[in-house]
Amino acid sequence: MTTMPLINIIVGAALLLFGRRLFWLFVAGVGFVAGMTLATAWFGGNISPVVILIATGVGIIGAILSVFLQGAVVAIAGFLSGGYLAYTLALGTNHASFAWIAFFIGGVIGALLVVGLFDWALIGLSALTGATVISENVALDRTASTLLFLALIVFGVVVQTRQLTKTPPAHKNGQ
Questions:
Q1: Which residues contact 115 (CB under 8 A, 6 or more apart)?
Q2: Exposure of 145 by Cβ count < 10 A (0-12 exposed, 13-18 middle, 19+ buried)?
Q3: Terminal Cα distance for the chain, rounded
Q4: Do 130 and 14 form a contact (C-beta atoms < 8 A)?
Q5: Residue 82 to residue 116: CA distance in whole angstroms
Q6: Whole domain around residue 13: which residue ranges?
Q7: In-domain check, residue 60
Q8: Are 129 and 15 in contact (CB under 8 A)?
Q9: Which tens digits make up the pLDDT trace of 130-164?
Q10: How many domains does the chain have?
Q11: Which of 62, 61, 60 is nearest to 79 (CA)?
C-alpha cells in the first residue's frame, strides 16, 4: 500500500470514530479530504507535494478556525462534508459532469443538517465521510467495497453514539 491511501485511511478512521467527540478533528479531517479531492481535480488528477500541501493546509486552517469560530466552522464543515459525499456519489454515476453541482447541493444540505442537528449530524456526517474515505482507499471489488462501506457506517455511528451517552455533548454552535 502506498503512503497516500494509508494517510487517507487513517484520516477516515479518525473521522469514523471520533468526528463528533473531537470537533476540531472532524473539521481538520473534512478539510484535508475536501482539500485533497479539490486540489487533485484542479491539478489534473495527479497527487503531488503541492496537492498534499494544499490538503494539509486546508485541514490545519479548519482545525484552528474551529477553535475560535465554532459556529461558522460548523456550517463550513457540514458544507464540505456534505459536498464531498455528494461529489463522490455523482462521480460514481453516469452524470459525473454534474459532480460540482452535486458538491454544492450536498454542501448546502450538509451545512443545514449540522447547524440544525449538531451532535447527530456530526455523528452521521463524520461516519459517512470516514466510511467513504476508507472504502475508497482499500483495494476491494465493488461488492466487498459496498459491504465494507455499510459496515463502517454502522460501526462509526454505534461507536460515536456510545461516546455521546458517556461524555458531555460537544459545544453546540459556539455556546
A1: 74, 75, 78, 121, 173
A2: middle
A3: 43
A4: yes
A5: 14
A6: 3-164
A7: yes
A8: yes
A9: 999 899 889 889 899 999 999 999 999 999 999 87
A10: 1
A11: 62
CA dihedral 140, 48, 98, 110 (to 10 degrees): 80
For 132, the grid coordinates are 467513504
Residue 65 lies in a domain: yes
pLDDT for 82-133, tens place per residue? 888 888 888 777 766 788 888 899 999 989 988 888 888 888 888 988 999 8
Q: Which residues of 55-65 are buried (b: 16+ CB within 10 A; e: fewer)?
A: bbebbeebbeb
Nearest in space to 119 (alpha carbons), one of 175, 67, 58, 80: 175
Cell representation of residue 77: 464543515
Give the amino acid at 43.
Answer: F
In a domain, 173, yes or no: no
DSSP alpha helix (H) spans, 43-173: 49-68, 70-91, 99-116, 118-136, 142-166
Report pLDDT for 135. Answer: 92
80 within some domain: yes
Q: Which of 12, 21, 31 is nearest to 131 (CA)?
A: 12
